[in-house]
Design a protein that fits this description.
Layout (H helix, E strand, L loop, with lengths): L11 E4 L8 H21 L10 H7 L4 H11 L18 H19 L5 H12 L3 E5 L5 H8 L7 E3 L1 H7 L8 H10 L6 E5 L2 H9 L4 E5 L5 H6 L4 E3 L11
Parallel strand pairs: 1-2, 1-4, 2-3, 4-5, 5-6
Helix pairs in contact: 1-4, 2-3, 3-4
Length: about 250
């Protein structure tokens, strides 16, 4: 292992955004809760069963493309909505309308609250680049660039593959490995020479399915065992924990 905690053959690092580089997973979870609770209240009245911002978020929406998250959660409640399309207004009762309602909520939270990166993640990004490795961010969010700019870390990443990229290239989202594979290819490496850094279980599944050289689970919420079960080679609470981890 190198002094940045990776096998010596790894030359590219592929980072998820929310929960790995920035604490925006909490912002997304809050926006999903606001969106789904409003929808369920409108549908079922005041006796509705609320969206759980931890359990439901982790199980059904974390790391998934927006529309997939809507479908997954609604299916868990045996609710079906028409698909609609990307241009649906946020008050339309469709999969895409509900997704756009969530997107409006998260953009408002980012605008009013701002975004700061995890300090340990900044340290690790700088250490990785100082060691000569290439870096990419791989996110299902279409707002990825806005978050990177707000957090002041866009310059530390050579490649960005996000929700907009996936749509343009027709790449399926996590748990499929395609977005990570695309980022590695954009950096000039195959999967065996790349490491994946993820906090979401579907991200672990993507790392395992893509046969990447190393998969790092980032445990911000106490799910280390689940991250390992889903394919993590190692689990850390903060990326800075990898610095000097040569054993």
């Amino acid at each position: 292992m190198t002094e940045i905690g990776l096998p010596s053959g790894v030359r590219a690092c592929l980072f998820d955004l929310d929960g790995v580089l920035t604490p925006t997973a909490l912002v997304h979870a809050a926006a999903w809760k606001e969106t789904f609770d409003d929808f369920l209240r409108e549908r079922d009245g005041d006796g509705f069963r609320p969206f759980d911002a931890t359990a439901d978020y982790d199980e059904y929406v974390d790391g998934r493309p927006r529309a997939d998250g809507v479908r997954s959660f609604l299916a868990s409640r045996h609710i079906e909505l028409p698909e609609g399309d990307d241009e649906d207004p946020p008050d339309k009762q469709t999969v895409h309308g509900l997704g756009n309602r969530k997107n409006d909520a998260v953009l408002e939270k980012i605008r009013t609250q701002g975004v700061k990166p995890y300090p340990g993640s900044v340290r690790y990004l700088e250490a990785v680049r100082a060691a000569g490795l290439r870096t990419a961010v791989v996110s299902s969010s279409a707002n990825c660039r806005d978050v990177l700019v707000s957090a002041g870390i866009e310059h530390l990443l050579d490649v960005r593959v996000d929700g907009a990229t996936a749509k343009e290239r027709h790449l399926p989202g996590k748990p499929h490995p395609d977005t990570f594979l695309a980022a590695a290819a954009d950096l000039g490496f195959d999967a065996a020479r790349a490491a994946v850094f993820e906090d979401a279980l579907v991200g672990m599944d993507a790392g395992r399915a893509g046969h990447f050289g190393f998969v790092v689970g980032v445990d911000r919420v106490g799910q280390a065992a689940a991250l390992r079960q889903h394919g993590a080679d190692t689990v850390v609470e903060d990326l800075a924990d990898l610095i000097g981890a040569t054993a």
